[in-house]
Structures are given as C-alpha cells and as structure tokens.
Design goal:
The complex is a heterodimer of chains A (334) and B (334).
Chain A (H helix, E strand, L loop, with lengths): L5 E14 L2 E14 L3 E5 L6 H8 L8 E10 L2 E2 L5 H7 L4 E4 L13 H17 L8 H14 L5 H6 L7 H15 L3 E5 L7 H14 L7 E6 L2 H7 L2 E6 L2 E7 H6 L4 H8 L49 E4 L2 E3 L6
Helix pairs in contact in A: 3-6, 4-6, 6-7
Chain B lengths: L3 E13 L4 H6 L5 E8 L2 E3 L3 E5 L6 H8 L7 E6 L2 E2 L5 H10 E4 L3 H4 L6 H10 L6 H14 L16 H13 L5 E5 L7 H18 L2 E6 L2 H7 L2 E6 L2 E6 L1 H6 L4 H9 L38 H5 L5 E4 L2 E3 L2 H12 L1
Parallel strand pairs in B: 4-9, 4-10, 7-8, 8-9
Antiparallel strand pairs in B: 1-2, 1-3, 1-5, 5-6, 10-11, 11-13, 12-13
Helix pairs in contact in B: 5-6, 5-7, 6-7, 7-8
The chains are: A alpha/beta (334), B alpha/beta (334).
Chain lengths: 334, 334
Amino acid sequence: MASQSTLLSTQDLSVVFETPYGSVQALDHVNLTVGENEIVCLVGESGCGKSTLGLSLIGLLPMPPARIVSGKIIHKGINITSLRKNDLRLMRGTEFFMIFQEPMSSLNPVLTIENQLLEALKVRNERVNNNVETAVPKSKLRDELVRSLETVKVPDPERVLNGYPHQLSGGMRQRVMIAMALLLKPTLLIADEPTTALDVSTQDQILKLFKDLVGEELKGSVVFITHDLTLVKTFAERVAVMYAGEIVEDGPVELVLKDPKHPYTQGLLKCLPKNHKKDGSIESIPGAVPDLTDPPPGCKFNPRCKYVMDKCSRAKPQFFSTGKEHSARCFLYE
Amino acid sequence: MSSSLVETVNLVKHFPVDNSIFAKISGAANRVVHAVDNVSITISQNETLGLVGESGSGKTTLGLTVLMLTKPTSGSVRFRGTPIETLKGSELRRIRREMQVVFQDPNSSLDPRMKVMDIVAEPLTSQMKLNHEETRERVASALEKARLERDFMVRYPHEFSGGQRQRIAIARALISNPSFIILDEPTSSLDVSVQAQILNLLVTLQNELKLSYLFISHNIDVVTYISDRVAVMYLGRVVEVADPHQIVEDPLHPYTQMLIASVPSLRDLAKKKVEATGETPSAILPPSGCRFHTRCPFARKICKITEPELVTISESRSVACHMVSDNAAYNKDT
C-alpha cells in the first residue's frame, strides 16, 4: 500500500536514559512511518529499543530517567512531544491504545471486568460522541460489552464480565485487553509482545484473532512489537528491524524475510535452529549486543559483522535503498 | 538401540493442593495436582530425548522427579538399571554426581554472592574434599569445556551476559563428569543469536563427552533440532513419542497436530492441521478418559470414558490415542 497517507511518523527521534552508570542511548535518530490502516512490525532482540519506541509513540516514557534529546513524533500533523501532559492524556485510549506483554499488569485486580470495560466505553462516549449527559441505560452499555467480548471469542461473556482478572487465564486476559481496544476504537494500536507470555496454542489463537479483527472491527493502524521473527509473516505488511537503538532495515515482510539485506537481519534469520542439521554448526552472530552507554563508533553492528569494512568503524551509514520500499542502513548498498 | 541409561517406570507425582490441618480434617487434602501421571520414558546412552509441552504439562516436574529433587508419589526411576527412588545419603549422592541439571534462568540458578570458581566447584566440594590447587584445575577445565576463559573464575555472575551465565551453569553441570544432564529450557531466556551459540555448544559437548540429555522446552523448533527422539506431554501424560521429523511432518496424536500447526515457522510443513481451540484444563480435576478429549475434534464416546495407553505403533514411535491405535490395528489386520 504505497499510496496511503501517513498516520504517524517519528523524525530523528533520539531518546536517552540517564543512569548512574552513564547515559544510555536507547533510541538513535529513529525514523519510522506508519500509514493509515497499516500493520507495521518492529523486530529486534532484547535491549534494541523496540519497547522504548513503542512507549514514546504514546507518550508513556518515564521522564526522568528518559529524555527525548531530539526529534519529533508527528501524529495527524501534531507534534506530540511538545504537547502538555493533560492534552496527551486525552489522546491516550481513543487515539493510541497499547497492549502489553503481561495483561495482568494492565488490568486492575480489584475491579470487575465489567467495570474496567465500562470505563473504556464511558471515555469513548465522553470524548468522541460527547453524550456524557444523555445517560445511556446501563443494560444497553452492558449489551455492548457482551458484544465486544463475543467478538474476541471469550466463552460465556456474562460470567466473565462479573469476574475479576485473576479468575481468567492469560489468554483470556489478553482477549479482554483486545475487547477494550475494540470499545475505544483507537487510530493507532501498539501491541508490545502481546503473545510472548502465552503458550503456543494460545498464541496461535490470539494471533488469528488479531488477523481477523484488523481492518474489520479494529479499524486503524497497528504497530506490533516482537522479538520473534517467525511471527512477523503471520499478518504484518511491513517490518522494521531494530538493533542497538536504530532501525537497520525496513521493508515489506516478504522481501525482508526472503532476501534480507542488512547483515544483522541475515544473521538473525540464519541462527534459527530450523533448517539446520544437528552437528553444532548453526551460524550464530558472534559477540554480544554492545553496551549502549558506550556504543562502538560508526555502524553499531560493525564489531559483529562479517562484511565489516574500514569505513564501517569511521562513519555511520545512512539508509540505502535496496529495492522497492526496501532499505537497509549498511555501506554494502552504497 | 543401545541399553537405556535412564528409565522411568509408571512415574507418578501428585502435589497436594492444600496441606493444612484444616484441609486434612475436612477431606480437602485429597485434592491433588496431577503433575506427572504414569509416565514411562527411556533415555539411551549418548541420546537426546526432547520433552515438549505447554506450561503446566508437567515437563519440569518430570525432570525434577528423575533427579530425585522431589520424591515420586509412585513409580520408579532407574539409572543404569538401579532404582534410585529408594536410595539415601551417600548412595544417592554418588548417583547424583552422574546426573546434572541446567535450569532456564541463570540469574536465579547462580548465587550472586559467590564467585564463579565456588559456583562451578560446588558439585565437587559438596561431595569430596579437594585441595585448592586441584579444585582450581578442575574448575578451569570445566570452564574451558564450556568455552569460557579461565580468568573468569575470580569474577561474580553479575559481570557476565546472559549467554555467558548459561555457560557458567553448563560448566557447573560438567565438573563432576556426568553421563546424563537434564536441560530445563536452557535457552528460553536468551536471544536467538545467543541461543544458537548455546545449542552449538551443547551438541559439541554431547559428541565430545558422550553425554545423554533430557532436553525440556516449549520451543518446538529448538527441540526438534537437538533431539534424537521427542516426547510430547499434555496434562501430566506423555501422549506421543517419535522421531523429530515425524513429530513435525507427520504427527499422529491430535494434540501434537494442534501444537505443530500453532508454530508459525512449522505451520507450512504440517500436513494435518488441527486448529487450536480452547485452553488446557486444570490439572487438579483432569478430564476423564483421554485428557485431550475436551479440545479434540475427533473425540468419540470411548475417549471420554477410557484413558488410552501409550501404544507402540512402529519402531521408535508410540502414541496414546484411541483413534490412532484403532487405525494401526485395522491396518495390521488387512
């Protein structure tokens, strides 16, 4: 979808965490665009900054210790980094909604599911429909809650509504979070590792649910954050691979998975045990992720890269186009 | 197949739900979690048995019971033919020298206040008196086997990365020259590039030292890579044992079929696809008959009444399913 208009973009976004051990460069000049109704996947290993990026998109970065050093986040033409706290709060929920890895920490343990979903519905009605005065009868609201739980395939929604989060399984809690997103109808949904805490058979059901809902009941764009490259192809259209606080490759899912350009993406795909004989020779990426208080000069991947050249440690590569809508931050494609 | 090194015979482990005096009086103490139920597996010399299952399937409990870290409720564990559940004191300690374990999270399995030298030497020092020089030499050689530098022994666990910490745990398991190691999710807390390094190390060590492994994991990609045979567990029971390629390409038990179809990277390989539905029932009151019948698309009347036995279908392959064993019997007759 090339012709779609941009919903949200980050422009040279840099975020630093101040710690007693020094400043950690968590995001380094990140440029990410999310089109209207587009599904973008952010992939990377732990510590690459994918969650920091997700949190900064909805203005939930803990500041301090975090600090936006430079750059803008433009959502529908507004730079949300310059908004006041209260204005930003009014955008959360109806404009941005975030689903986290562990739904138990997003749900309130002392409120029933009904009360929590009702709150979402009220917020939506207040902000969008402005019908705070015209009291909708509670039974009618409850019907809407039941419908939303049915959409996310929660069995016995009436009983679930009267229950508390601890009475639900991890998969059911995550479904409740998705139901909340359905009620709020956000323009941008950020899902940060929503299936990582779940078993594979539950993960499969949640991913299928996502796939069915996106573009149908769930209108809007989705940023899906994961560490698992194998999940990417299940429903995303575009993938951005992150390494040490930078996006290193960006392109259509099929191209990136079939013909990865950046040496890091190539390494990530090669080191999956699938397709290897058991002889102790899986190609792994040597070394470890760099210390972000003192990142290596030039390309941050150069100490681990097998194609490393002289200039890789001297200058930082820009994005070079490697095909249609496919680009990599690597001097190999200069 | 060579003679078995480790064998479990009808191994059962039940945990009481509530052990308080009140529960005993009221009779509630009879309620138990059926963590491991009637499991018979064998592991041969120099073989890797993979154990897959979702959370709560009892795979970790099985590992702990094999090591006698928790006493079985009934059944037997045999090591080189000797039942070890009745052994005590010095006899059990002597056996334990030959059986070691590596856990999932090196942050909790390595004492943060001990130096690497003391951590790695502990399996030796707890069993015998060694002078300082000897201990140093043994630790250095164990670290070398795990591809770590000898100087690391004077440092503390927090100074190392996740992958290095897992290597320290592996060195500790190797120091008593074991013949059998239980690897309980050894790569689950690691990033994929580091996971590949650890898997390579484990395969190389097995070839060099003729080790036998029980490899426990929920990651089917990893298990099928490293295992010679794979056992699938569901709610405390082993439902299928087969070669890794059979598990992936031609799973027989409906649960295995569902599991394989849920893994994004394997879905395309699976011939039979069983859609994932429902959730794992409680292990306190497991379903009658076949424990999978509540989620099985092929469930018949008999499945609700009689629990299927693990039946050997062909060499190296057994399945606990009425449908499969009926088909096998039918094929034999005609």
